[in-house]
Amino acid sequence: MESSVELSSSLPPPRSRIFKIIVIGDSGVGKTCLTYRFCAGKFPDKTEATIGVDFREKVIEIDGEKIKVQLWDTAGQERFRKSMVQHYYRNVHAIVFVYDITNAVSFQSLPAWIEECRQHSLGQDVPRILVGNKCDLRGAARVSTDVAQKFADSHSMPLFETSAKSPGDNDHVEAIFMTVAHKLKSQKPLALSQPPSGDGTVPLKKPTEDRGGYSCSC
Ligand SMILES: Nc1nc2c(ncn2[C@@H]2O[C@H](COP(=O)(O)OP(=O)(O)OP(=O)(O)O)[C@@H](O)[C@H]2O)c(=O)[nH]1
Ligand SMILES: [Mg+2]
Hints:
EC number: 3.6.5.2
Pfam families: Ras
Distance between the termini: 68 Å
Organism: Scleropages formosus (Asian bonytongue)
CATH topology: Rossmann fold
Radius of gyration: 18 Å
Oligomer: single chain
Bound molecules: guanosine-5'-triphosphate, magnesium ion
CATH class: Alpha Beta
Protein name: small monomeric GTPase
Membrane topology: Lipid-anchor
Number of domains: 1
């Protein structure tokens, strides 16, 4: 008869949760830079327009549980999206809408991105956040925080203004994605499909602002 020690050592390792988060918005708003900042901890030297979708992953730890955050960095350009679109929206746990605070058109496009999600059956139950990127660009015409906040409120999502570029906002980008992961963890159990990995683990930082979002000081 096998001992209990032998039995337990032959069991597969416990599996960790994966959170699939899609990042969408117009071309050039900084989706690739934001996801790279979160996963690699720095601003990329250079980026090219994303074709189809890129994946970035990071293992985080919340309340002692290792969770794989899988960011789907989607193409903003229509011609690079066409064939892939239906794959983005499968089994999505959360949505990050991004606009460029110095580009009003990218803000005006948000209803179309929201509509695309609706058409792909992503209901209001899927957590979503709004991110205004490129806060470091001072002096440029910018989408007002008040207008953006009203839009976010009307769609029941928190607004975050940040910069993927400014080193001072490094934690800020991390905090945004950690906030999403924290929200997902507090929901019902999700997909379990991969063994835990020991790399890329970061501790949870709790949001500190009272509106459920953040604004940068620039
Ligand atoms: N100043 C500043 N520039 C940024 C920031 N984030 C991205 N950029 C720049 O904006 C340009 C576009 O960034 P990407 O991250 O490639 O944009 P994208 O949204 O992924 O674009 P697509 O892949 O075409 O959809 C690049 O030149 C970046 O260097 C930021 O926070 N501040
Ligand atoms: Mg990109």
